[in-house]
Amino acid sequence: MEKRASAIADGRAEELVWLLEHPPLYSAGVSAKTADLLDPDRFPVFETGRGGQYTYHGPGQRVAYVMLDLTARDRDVHRFVTALETWIITALGDFNVEGHIREGRVGVWVERKSPGLPPREDKIAAIGIKLRKWVSFHGIALNVEPDLDHFSGIIPCGQTAHGVTSLVDLGLPVSMDEADHALKAGFEKIFGPCIAAAAP
After folding, report:
1. What's the CA gap between 2 and 135, in Å, rounded?
2. Residues taking part in catalysis
3. 129-165: pLDDT as tens digits
């Protein structure tokens, strides 16, 4: 990923988005606090250099590593993060899920309402990026059908007042292929046309 981002910055390669699934692991961003790693022996822990804190990656979660040239687009980090959030919200709309952006909280959130209980907000997608020479890498993680218990080994993104959810947890039997289709369509609405590429 870093080699590709460098090649994009040098004009030797085209922009690229990778869609993948990781085996179960925890990743630490540059703001990760040791106390937020509650179960350090549960899964491998990787220091990533991206923004943000601890998060979980694993089967049933679609990770998109986004390598885009912001010099050719718009050299505005805040606007870029907002565009990533809007991309996810657009994709969620294909499943009639209303995603939200919240001030002071990176990522995409959904409201959960249960009879007799106060409403709560859970995180359905995380964002953690890095820029070098105005080329982005790392990216987003959308919870399609991961084992949500695996998030209990960390304090996800340092948030203790909110939970984590997924499309399947919301009662939507969405497959990874369906999620990919929605992500591709949403990406084109926000960032422009794209074509399928062979896996590296």
Report:
1. 10
2. 157
3. 999 999 999 999 999 999 999 999 998 876 777 789 9
